[in-house]
Records
---
Amino acid sequence: MNPTLEAALRSWPFDPWLLAALSITAAIYLRGWLSLRRRDPWRWRRGRLAAFFIGLTAIYLALASPIEPFSAFLLTAHMLQHLLLMMVAAPLVWLGAPLVPLLRGLPRPIRAVWIAPLFRSRSIRFALARLTNPGTALALFVAATWLWHLPAAYDLALRLNGWHYLQHTCFFATALVFWYPVIRPYPDRSRRSDWLLLPYLLAADLQNTILSALLAFSSRPLYPYYLQVPRLSGISAEQDQAIAGVTMWLVGSLAYLAPLVWIGIRLLYGDRPFSPMRVPAPIRPAQHSPRRPTTGAFDLLRLPVLGRFLKSPHARLALQLPLSVLAILIIVDGLFGPQVGAMNLAGVLPWIHWRGLVVLGLL
């Protein structure tokens, strides 16, 4: 067995305080969820319970698995910690709609004496509403991400445990604030349009792309701390930083673009069943509507061969397959090709040409 892998399997730190906090939270949620499910099984389905528990598990893996000790030696491991907290744990916790089950699971005296006055406070409710406003949430999320990735702040967090805990707390707290407008966990009653979430998630993906590009394509290590620690498995500090940047780019883009696609489909199709291969029937004009003149207009669908292909129900699949093969080739070249950005397809096509075509397509 590889010595690094063997060391990773044996490096499970024991954090009783974290384990106790997560266990108590899980028990309170389960108690409240069971009580609510007896009254309304449709709303409190098992999926909510599974999402919340998986979110807590992601927090434990980020802070009390071999990722934690290895984060002191590998920037990639430290990046995995941040991604688990910000891209996995935070949205999963909100998907569990934890506010009502956690309140329901607490003992009645605690709810009545300590929690109820907080929820009745107008100032607290106003502050929470402002905090979860998309503009405020995005600003806090981006600020925390960039400030903690500055070399001075990042090195400070690596050298001092107190700052390290503060860094993780900031990442997770701002991630909760960021994902709240996207998921809107029950019993949220905000009436913001879902169209606002499209630029919201695109802006988050753009800043994630820029930061990950700075890490992946930097010609020198940005964090001096990793130049002073032993290197594992022969990975240099430059290679480790590049891998961390690519990891941040891939996981972050998936985390932002997956809900973006889902929201877009929901906005376009509503509650109707969505089938990518279904071609909608053409809408015939009313009898009294005059036909628009077509002379002088160029229409691809009227071309003999190309038009018939584009109107075919299999046209989309025929275009998707070669593009998928191209995407796979780009990924393979990124992993095994020249490890220089300007000579690698994964370093040139997605970062420069693809994003330029996206901008032109949107225009």
---
Amino acid sequence: VGVKRPMLIDLVFADYEDVRKIYLSISKSGDALIGEGWVTFLDGSKRYVWGKASPLYDENGEVFGAIEILRDVTDSVHTREALIQTEKMITVGGLAAGVAHEINNPLGIILQTNENIRRRLFDDISANLDAAQQFSINLDAVREYLRSRSINNYIADIKIAGERASRIVKSMLQFSRKSELKFEDNKIIQIIENSIEFASSDYDLKKDYDFRKIKIIKEYFCDSVLYCSVIELEQVFLNILKNSAQAMMLSATENPCIIIKVFERDKFVVIEFIDNGPGMDKETSKRIFEPFFTTKEVGTGTGLGLAVSYFIIVNNHKGSIEIDSEKGKGTRFIISIPFQTNR
């Protein structure tokens, strides 16, 4: 395609000016250029291409234009990114397992000691009553003092924080080993229905947002039987439902809605969760499955829910989980699980 005939370029690329600069550069230097990157075609589609642009010479040896060979390598790029993501997750998984084991022991001591303090101060067991009598202590007066200084609340807060840390540790351990949970034949629709029921009764969702106010549209085109772990898939589906609900809550989405689609494609069962929430930008979408990455406020999210979901689907069920989202246009989670997994 020569610089003197720009219409040919214009008929292919939407970002014609950027491409034209390449040709002008070749015309001036006479050097071939090799590179790769995203290009936008006139139909709006974007593809990642490898290209080589070479100068065209006239009979006098002068450069009068350039010709470019483009190779669509989008699928290869996606595969490469998926491999990089998987390797990253495996590496972080090893680190997470080590940290989790180191934390587990002192955390267990904290929770056990906290429970012992509570029982020895507030339970009317014979050992407490005998010890108070031995030292002539009015146990009721001690308890009133503790309550007046909110010490009972501090003890309760320690337990809540410790239990939250314990849940985080359990999630981290998901990275280190393949689940030992039982795999068996289960109907995918029943697993989804269970997850919806769990979301409706989830304490955190009821506290911050009434999940029952979200319209759930079910588009079930099959009721396939999968060889899978029910508990693990319920965990994945619940994580996605909670993330969608919380995103719509924070953005005050009008008429919040989640569409759940189930259908078969080739040798896979595909489950899609589509919400009409705020969506996310490309940078956030790329990192959404990374461990400890979260867009929530400090203290409201661990950044492990979707990372664990990734491992459950990809490692344990040999499937894939992807996200398709655009700022202001909602989010779609696409989960593909093969038949006969792990048999």
---
Amino acid sequence: MKATATRTVAQTQQLITSLGDKRYWSSSQSNFTNSYTGDGSSAPYLGKEYMSTNVGDISDTSPYGTGTRPAVEPHVSNPPVAETVINSSTFVSNMANLVTFIAPVTSFTDPAYKN
């Protein structure tokens, strides 16, 4: 079994302090989606603006990062605004660090134990 990294009191206190008055961890939003507005057009789009992006036209609800939308209408007039959000991966990571401080796992070797 592999050991978990040890956490110091200072590291743990900094993590708790980072909660602040809000009582939750937040991080900058890194992905966006277009709101679902119904099925997209059945007419094929013949332009090439979306060929090198991670997002299609305004009816595409796939996630995309900032700066990856093509500069064509309607995206030109509707840029994504980065917000601070509660992110589940940030929460899980921080909770894992807190649990590791409270109950660290030490490695052991036991011939009867199979990894």
